[in-house]
Design brief:
The protein is about 50% helix and about 15% strand. The protein has about 325 residues and is an alpha/beta fold. It folds into 2 domains: about 1-210 and about 305-310, Spore Coat Polysaccharide Biosynthesis Protein SpsA, Chain A (Alpha-Beta Complex), CATH 3.90.550.10; about 225-300. Helix 2 (about 50-60) links the parallel strand 2 (about 35-40) and strand 3 (about 60-65). The longest helix is centred in the C-terminal third of the chain and has 34 residues, at about 265-300. It starts with a strand and ends in an 8-residue tail after the last strand. The model has no long low-confidence stretch (mean pLDDT about 90). The protein binds uridine-5'-diphosphate and magnesium ion. Magnesium ion binds near residues 93, 95, 97 and 205.
């Protein structure tokens, strides 16, 4: 049995060696298994790539794939899935937030044959800024309401899965990738392993608030078309409301004559209505625009990533 570990790395020079050593120790305790470690250098500007080259020189299990620029964690994970050859595969953060020490337990659960994947879930968000937890929780609530795909709150991308599941992920070739949604969409039986949140050993999180915000919007737009109902409902509601002033006008015209029917509305009300309706129209166009721009991205069919250097033969490019 072979286990593939996929590790996206973006400017991880400070945590990479610690992580590799820990992984190495864990793999020694699991001598029944062969290991393959695929490190994806996602266009790092620090010493990440040279550290990876050093590691790969002394350890034949290590593959590195270096991107021509920063394509994002999703692209890095996809490159890993496309290039892994193990019977089992898992994605792990290079910062030890996905503890390698959980691996033996995960393998045991998978080996029992009852499950197709073992996924990890943080039971707390200890150590995370409050505002970030708040937005994360709100996102999961919205996602639950508007998408049929099950996305578990606190789920990490760290999950060990069987080959069948990896092949299913590789077959999902969309450009706007949202892995938590993809894992949920493809199905399979998943065992959820809870663990206490671990803070990264070194360096800083690569996710700014803006990046996370657009990533979560991507999640919603990629796995739900519910937002498209908003313009429809808004249209129905506003059309119905429009009958109220029309009714008043008709009433005045009948009782007091035509000239009374066309005056009597304050300028402020007209201005308010104009701005409100204008805003709602722009919102609706914006929502439709999100889907169109995503369709445009997909239609272009650009590669998910471009590889500048690797030590792997026959590397798969997508
Ligand atoms: N990462 C990446 N490309 C990016 C951003 C992050 O490959 O553009 C990697 C990063 O090196 C790490 C993992 O993805 O191994 C998760 O990133 P990070 O730890 O910054 O995210 P957090 O754990 O704070 O959500
Ligand atoms: Mg992390």
């Amino acid at each position: 049995m072979k286990i593939s570990l996929i590790v996206p790395c973006y400017n991880e020079e400070n945590s990479l060696l610690l992580f590799y050593n820990e992984l190495n120790n864990v793999s020694k305790d699991m001598s029944d298994y062969d290991f393959e470690m695929i490190f994806i250098d996602d266009g790092s500007s620090d010493k990440t790539l040279s550290i990876l080259k050093d590691i790969a020189k002394d350890d034949s299990r290590v593959t590195y794939i270096s991107f021509s620029k920063n394509f994002g964690k999703e692209a890095a994970m996809y490159a890993g899935f496309c290039n892994c050859t193990g019977d089992y595969a898992a994605v792990m953060d290079a910062d030890m937030q996905d503890p390698p020490s959980l691996l033996p337990q995960m393998v045991d659960i998978l080996k029992s044959g009852e499950y197709d994947s073992v996924a990890t879930r943080r039971v707390s968000r200890k150590g995370e800024p409050r505002i970030r937890s708040f937005f994360a929780n709100t996102f999961y609530k919205i996602m639950k309401k508007c998408s049929k795909v099950e996305i578990v709150s606190g789920a990490r991308d760290f999950r060990l899965m069987r080959r069948e599941m990896v092949d299913a992920i590789v077959s999902m070739c969309e450009g706007n990738r949202f892995s938590k949604g993809i894992f949920g969409w493809i199905g399979f039986k998943t065992y959820w392993l809870p663990f206490e949140n671990v803070e990264r050993v070194a360096g800083k999180s690569k996710w700014s608030f803006g990046k996370l915000f657009s990533y979560s919007l991507n999640g919603i737009f990629s796995f739900s078309s519910s937002p498209l109902k908003i313009p429809v409902y808004l249209g129905i509601i506003l059309s119905l409301i429009s009958f109220v002033p029309f009714g008043f006008m008709l009433y005045n015209a009948i009782n007091y004559g035509f000239s009374m029917a066309i005056n009597g509305v304050s300028d402020n009300l007209i201005l308010f209505t104009l701005l409100l309706v204008g805003g709602l129209i722009l919102l609706s166009i914006g929502i439709i625009g999100q889907y169109i721009s995503r369709t445009y991205d997909e239609v272009k069919g650009r590669p998910h990533y471009i590889i500048a250097q690797t030590n792997k033969e026959n590397v798969v490019k997508r």
